[in-house]
Amino acid sequence: MIDRPKYRVLVVDDEANQRTALASMVQGWGYETATAADGEQALEILREFDAWAVVTDLMMPRMDGSELLRRLKAQGNPPPAIVLTAFGNLETAIALVHDLGAFWFLEKPLQPDALRLLLERAVAQRRLADYSETLERQLSEKGVLGELVGGSGPMQEIFSLIRQVAPTSATVLITGESGTGKELAARAVHALSPRRGGPFVAINCAALPETLIESELFGHEKGAFTGAIERRRGCFELADGGTLLLDEIGDMPLSTQSKLLRVLEERRVRRLGSPRESEVDVRLLAASNRNLQDEVRHGRFREDLFFRLNVFQITMPPLRQRPQDIPLLCQSMIGDMNRRHQCAVSGVDPEALEKLVAHAWPGNVRELRNVLERAVILSGTGQVRLYHLSGLAGSPPPQASPSAPRNPAELALPIGTTVAEAERALIEITLQHTANNRTRAAAILGISQKTLFNKLREYGSQESGE
């Protein structure tokens, strides 16, 4: 029997005797129960009764089990539902699991042990989902939500908006300057949504020529156009059951916009060269660094599509409006860069951090990542210092900074050194600086690992007299 707290289960069945008997059995396993005679009554009860699981019959008057699950899914974050089905409805029940997210199904006559096991698993899933939500909330309060980082007021507002809209099925328009993290916000919406188990597909509308964007979105049949040598599914089909992000949608051609609008309204897609349409279940997110209202006024973006996309808008703040987030961003990025580049950088020293915080960051978080990545590679160990930030736009070279400490890895060569000798000396001192880490050395030198390997092999041959 389940100990405290008592988890709540809603039993839905139009047969009064079966409903009462089923609720009594579930109560005997330690659950608190409520009952409903059909889907409509179930929805009313669920407004007050926070069910951890729903056990529902499939065939009922007024609103059957299928419509009940459909309504719960549309509301967002539904409790796990176990569907009871009579013989002959097995195919329908499987479809409910696939299409409407039912937890599982059981055939009648009911096997009590099977229902008890499914209820325990359903409650465990709900408990895990609640724990994950609590953990996400705690992390966001510390300045982390998914891959987004920021403890400032503007970012906490963004986190709040994401948490509000994620459980719904609403279309979201994410705007902001380039490099502000629009795709990361879209991924956070997906990760906190009921579709988190489905695919997340992102397509950059600005990166595709007009002749290919429809094929990428809607797919094509073999022979639909020159070069279509095989059938291909488009992004809508690939994202079925999940989330599709149309990034830089302001760059989408007007002719494609009208076709996109039709897909959004009818939830059906037709591959290029196909006479048939197929249903798609996709939540759409769109992102743009342009002002789409201005694009509408200038006739470059359809007004009806803008209204269809702009159900819920999230505007990502530029980094210059939240400089207090830069230390936290640096801490998060350095951990990732250490793993990728096999470095052991512990952080950013105060003088360098002051320089990073004071910078205007026209390229936003993306620019910060690029500058910091180069600095981490140059530093290798210890802290990122001011002279490692030579990649920062507008920064003076290391020699022009009187406060910068002398670089211990500085190379001095006498007059008369040949280019080949200077190259070898530079490679050797860089390898010493990186503790013979060839991956990092190649990155610092700006050459491929293959080129570095060939150079070292050449030096080895020279020393052996080959």
Any overview of this molecule?
The protein has 466 residues and is of the alpha/beta class. It has 4 domains: 8-133, Rossmann fold (3-Layer(aba) Sandwich); 150-317, P-loop containing nucleotide triphosphate hydrolases (Rossmann fold, 3-Layer(aba) Sandwich), CATH 3.40.50.300; 320-401, Helicase, Ruva Protein, domain 3; 409-466, Arc Repressor Mutant, subunit A (Orthogonal Bundle). Helices cover 46% and strands 15% of the residues. It is built from 18 helices and 18 strands. The protein has helices at residues 16-28, 39-46, 65-75, 90-99, 112-141, 153-165, 182-191, 210-218, 235-238, 254-266, 292-297, 303-309, 326-341, 350-358, 364-379, 419-433, 438-445, 449-464, and strands at 8-12, 32-36, 53-57, 81-85, 104-107, 144-145, 148-149, 172-175, 200-204, 219-220, 232-233, 243-247, 268-269, 278-279, 283-288, 312-315, 344-348, 381-384. The strands form 6 sheets. A 5-stranded parallel β-sheet has the order 2-1-3-4-5, sandwiched between helices. It has a 5-stranded parallel β-sheet with strand order 9-12-15-8-16. A two-stranded antiparallel sheet has the order 6-7. Strand 6 (144-145) and strand 7 (148-149) form a beta hairpin. Helix 2 packs parallel to helix 3 (65-75), helix 13 packs across helix 15 (364-379) and helix 16 (419-433) packs across helix 17. The longest helix is centred in the N-terminal third of the chain and has 30 residues, at 112-141. It is elongated. Mean pLDDT is 85; it is low at 396-406.
